[in-house]
Fold:
Amino acid sequence: MVFYSQVLMDFIEPLLSGNEDNDEYLAKAWFGQTAWNYSIAEVNNLPYGAELKATIQKLNSMYPDMSEPMKRLVERKIEKFNDHNQFIFSVELRHKPDGTVSLYVESVPVDKLIKK
Structure:
């Protein structure tokens, strides 16, 4: 079984310094989600591609220092995570009873999004 929380954490690893607080970590996970889904939409010709491209352009204008990392993430998805083909629709941090925090991801196989 593949846990997309772990896949996303591995995917965004190049963005991480190890010094992120929870808000910074979640923001980087959201950037990763956007790059991931854009790549999934482009490869699978999903109708969300244009919206995701516009979102990336808006994020790049709001956070210019993330423009190049975002581009590299899109490339990273194709190069290193091509066999993972689920669309990520929810990313959040969850607090466990023991006080630790974990990344929670909900995803759906891309073939469930494509109308046949």
